[in-house]
Amino acid sequence: MYKKYFKRFIDVTVSGLSLILLFPIFLIIAVLIKIDSRGPILFTQKRVGEKGRVFRIFKFRTMLTFEDSFYPDGSPIENYDRITKIGKILRKTSIDELPQLINIFIGDMSIVGPRPTLLYQVEKYDEYQARRLDVKPGLTGLAQVNGRNSLSWEQKIQYDIDYVNNITFLNDLKIILKTFVVVFKSKEIEFVSHDEISKHAGDVREDVNIS
């Protein structure tokens, strides 16, 4: 009952109210982003959702645009150095993810679920790993409160499948409460390394829209 009906009701209610209440803060963040660097306020990218449906995820832009990501001599700026001053703050506090409340409200995502992944990663899934696509992706999830970027993709997927197998109101509530604890600790979890699922062999710009 919860998974089929009540979960979506909570998603719409909470995301709708949050968007209204957070609107003044969104405006302040938008101004800071525009002051800090040239480019759009929002970053959007193609992600894979429930049953393999592709949608565009919304985030506050935290990096220099591709056009501004070169040194005077023409050499490219490394990704970590492309993060703007305000972007570092937004990422550390996870505020950059808040525009995904829009995705939740319109039905692309849920508050809790596996994080939405990229198409090239999904193409590498086997049948078991693809089970993480049986539900809507989430703003937060079991993997995010149990290690986040310190986990390999194999570990993240296992957490996601564990979640898919046991979706209850109580479990969602626990994940949400633990998310607040993780965010308020303000401990930045560093990315470890790419594995065979997360490694990108193509041009990441083809799925990005920052115009």
Task: Walk me through this protein's architecture.
This protein is of the alpha+beta class and 211 residues long. It has one domain. 41% of the residues lie in helices and 10% in strands. The strands form 2 sheets. The protein has a 3-stranded antiparallel β-sheet with strand order 2-1-5. A two-stranded parallel ribbon has the order 3-4. Helix 1 packs antiparallel against helix 4. It starts with a helix and ends with a strand.
* Average pLDDT number: 88
Q: What would you report as the Rg, rounded to the nearest angstrom?
A: 17 Å
Taking pLDDT < 50 over at least 5 consecutive residues as the criterion, the unreliable ranges are 188-194
Envelope shape = globular
Number of strands: 5
The percentage helix is 40-55%
Largest sheet, order of strands side by side?
A: 2-1-5
The N- to C-terminal Cα distance equals 41 Å
- How many domains make up the coordinates? 1
Tally of contiguous helical segments:
7
Q: Structural class from helices and strands?
A: alpha+beta
Q: Strand fraction band?
A: 5-15%
